Amino acid sequence: MVVEDQVSGTIVNEEIPDATFESTEVDSGFRFFVENGFANKIRKSTSEDSIIRASFFSGMGQNLGLVEKTKIVAIHKNLNPSCSGKVRAQSFQVFAKAVADKRGGDANLKYAWYGASRDEICEILIHGFSWYRKAAGNIDCSRRCISLSPAKFSFDSVLSSEVDETGLRHLLLCRVILGKQEVVTDSNQFHPSSPEFDSGVDDLSAPRKYIVWSAYMNSHILPCYIISFEAPYLRDSKGLLEANTIQPRSPWMSFPKLISMLSRFLGPSDMASLNKQYADFQEKKITRPQLIQSVKEIAGNQLLAAVVNLYINESAGTSS
């Protein structure tokens, strides 16, 4: 059974019985999720808990090292208790039916991950997704779409999460109306290219990114669960990305090894670009600094840092 089917099987009804929730005193670390009744903590070993955990860890790539170094601390269910929350949940059902009617009975509903800071996730639970989000330097920036990761690629959203003051990171597991998808290659696109399409994707055959336009972000995305976890290998990782960290002739990590490890997390199109850049380097069409810059642009700094850090830890474990 594929991960999507497993996750889909966790939610059959609109309501989950109270017996699936923790009744113990609220941990102060999660008070921001539960103090206003926005979410309840799911009990461990329930079907919801077990399948969400399995989906999360299966999306960490084909590497036990990441799974072993990542710990889920809690899973909370979004209750949509406010008036606006109930309206958004009802709106999702209405639009799901409308898209299904438009698409011959199939709205193409999927589960997907969304990684962000704890504060942004709290804002989403209270007010819904926003046209604006905080960028580097605490600067507000507008966005044309919401990007989510398919259920089997949770690690992509893990890299978009931010650690809070308690050392935790947080993801949303959302239900998404995708309808008919189109490949999006233009970063300036902010709506479907025609009425024929409902959402975007980076690759139709092997998607790593679902794209929901901002106009539809609160009608086509329904946050269902908050997953709080520890990923210490992502902490203090900026220093790993200096050019000399990934030199192609490094005695401890060659470019072929780096590319091999990145293949566990990158999609086909990104890997094709990466392999082309490395081939150009071997043929002396580009310089070493140009290759390093290309790798950073294709893979992204956080993924590179995590992969390099993981390799160091694996090498240390092998040599010990």
TrEMBL record:
Provide the RST domain boundaries: 246-317
Task: Report keywords, A-Z.
Answer: Developmental protein, Nucleus, Stress response
Q: Does the keyword Nucleus apply?
A: yes
What is an example of a Pfam family matching this protein?
A: RST
* Leader sequence residues: none
Recorded GO cellular component terms are: nucleus
Location in the cell? Nucleus
Q: Which domain of life is it from?
A: Eukaryota
Domain PARP catalytic: from-to ranges? 24-250
Molecular functions per Gene Ontology: NAD+ poly-ADP-ribosyltransferase activity
Q: What is this protein called?
A: Probable inactive poly [ADP-ribose] polymerase SRO2 isoform X2
What is the source species?
A: Durio zibethinus
Taxonomic placement: Eukaryota, Viridiplantae, Streptophyta, Embryophyta, Tracheophyta
Q: Name the gene for this chain.
A: LOC111282862
